[in-house]
Design a protein that fits this description.
Creatine Kinase, Chain A, domain 2; six-stranded mixed beta sheet; 15 strands; alpha+beta
Length: 447
Amino acid sequence: MALEVDWFLRANPGITMIEALLPDSNGVLRGKWLPRDKLAKVYKGELKFPKTALSLDIWGRDVEELVFASGDEDGVCLPVEGSLLPTPWSPRGRHGQLMLTMFRPDGQPYLGDARQVLKQVVARYHAHGWRPVIAAELEFSLLRWDGRRPAHSERNPYRGEPIGGNLYGLDVLQQNHRMLEQIHRACEIQGLPFDGVVKESAPSQYEINMRHVDNPILAARQILMMKRAIKEIAKQHDFVASFMPKPFEDEAGNGLHVHCSVLDRDGQNIFDDGTERGTFELQSAIGGCLQHMPDSFAILAPSFNAYRRFQKGSHAPTTPNWGYENRTVAVRVPAGSNKARRFEHRVAGADANPYLVFAIILAAALDGIERGLPPGEPIAGDAYSQEGPALPLYMQEALRLFGESSFVSTALGPEMQRTFGLTKEQELAEFERHITSLEYHAYVERL
């Protein structure tokens, strides 16, 4: 670690400030700025934050029950190896960034830290001699924002309103080429697996594709870093890049689609049997994902707004089902090379914490493999028109299932189950006590 600091400071003499970043359970980056001469102390374990810094609500407020229960004790924050990097969008390039992870004072991992939770899930795969391989598709909206209501970044010059989403439109990419090329360059500097960008189905909506990585812990960090790069660079072009799952009522929302395969000790994909059907392990992994999807839903849809994505025909699944080459289901098996046989988990919103998303998906898949859980028959055609058990499409129900789940307690640990649940209950309570403008419009004069 000392060599990493020495190399970085020598290679970047113009960097004066280090942004020390600690992702909370929402995936929001907390932390502090440190002058470069304090960097070595961080590597020696001298930087501390309250453990409750990882369980703030979406507005950055403490959850009082957690603060008082622990006395607001500190955790020790240590650097994540390989995360000390320049931030090319910073003023005159004078900032660097460093991702942190939290330990208890006795040196044990703090399991209220989503990264530490994912490490434990991945370790279970390693015990089998397996390596999970992850790739992601990350959607976001490029908006104008006046502080009250978002507006599309693209407009029809004759009516002032967008017409359609211009899906796969190259002209829109060309219009924003300076920003998109700057994002690509930032990804190159930070070693992020940028694999292309497309215009998505909703107006002002884009999707960043990320190359597959055989280290889910690294892949989760890369998603958080890429989201940060996109947001910061968009600001420089007078846009807001938002990963809000449903910014507009009548348009498709923003998702985080996760592709997963598993390699054995010889580098062979355990889901590949030489056919399009895939192995028993593939079927069982899907079975585990489907069985545990309702209990996992609070992780996959963590915000109050996230539940607005799940509507028929909105490119977000409403039942725990699966199928081959079918984008209307929750878990899809894409066509393509047998060697790349994998499943695509299509439920999570772009707002979800990638560490927790990967942890819950991988834990569910592994439980399915270990127990040989059948997935049922694959869906053909429009999954929205076919009957099936509903996912918990209200935050209250999702949190209840999450809090009562023995699977969640085993997969994520009781510490994360409790702290995440309390954090989200505080968020829900805040939304429930506010009266919306729609309620005033509907009721004040009519009742």
